[in-house]
Amino acid sequence: MHTLLVAANPDPGSLTHHVLGRLEAALQPGSVEIADLSEERFDPRFTPADRRAYHEGGNYPADVMAEHRRLERATDLVLVFPVYWWSMPALLKGWIDRVFVNGWAFEHSPASGLRPKLQHLTTHLLPIAGDDSGAYERHGYESALRTQIEHGIVDYCGSRRGRTAFIYESEQLSPEATVRGVDRAVRSISEAIQARLAG
């Protein structure tokens, strides 16, 4: 069992990074690796080379192949990210665009259709939302985010759906409520991963 935590927030003092540290600690003594996309300066731009690799199903750029190797070592993937405009940050979306590609995360052709390839992986989501849960429910934001990521990405690539644990009201003035939200989310994700390890 090996868990890869992927974070996308440019501020090392952010709540995202605090949650990342808490989650890493909660998963000890298990095997955990952190991919801090901002610190590592991952380039999210989908280039002509990425487009060619997508169509050919191979010949991936070197930085993409390095991410493939990290993911191939992992049994669990946790995406830890602030919600921007009711979705993931552009940096994380660009990582998915470039890394979860045809020939590696799935194979698709007009003749054979879709063949998902990430069955070895369980993907968990830890979105950090500025608004409260009521707003997410009233406007359908949580449902939309889950559909986009859980169904549109995780299911499409054949990864198992893990736990999704929102932290709401991350910008409120009540630090006690934020602490409780972080505690709940970290416990939810870490317990799901450790239950798989015990099973």
Automatic annotation (TrEMBL):
Identification of the protein by name: NAD(P)H-dependent oxidoreductase
Entry-linked SUPFAM superfamilies: Flavoproteins
UniProt keyword Kinase present: no
One matching Pfam family: Flavodoxin_2
Residue ranges of every copy of the Flavodoxin-like fold domain listed in the record: 1-184
Cited Gene3D superfamilies: 3.40.50.360
Family membership noted in the UniProt record: Belongs to the NAD(P)H dehydrogenase (quinone) family.
Key words of the record: Oxidoreductase
Organism: Streptomyces labedae
PANTHER family tied to this protein: NAD P H OXIDOREDUCTASE-RELATED (PTHR10204), NAD(P)H DEHYDROGENASE [QUINONE] 1 ISOFORM 1 (PTHR10204:SF34)
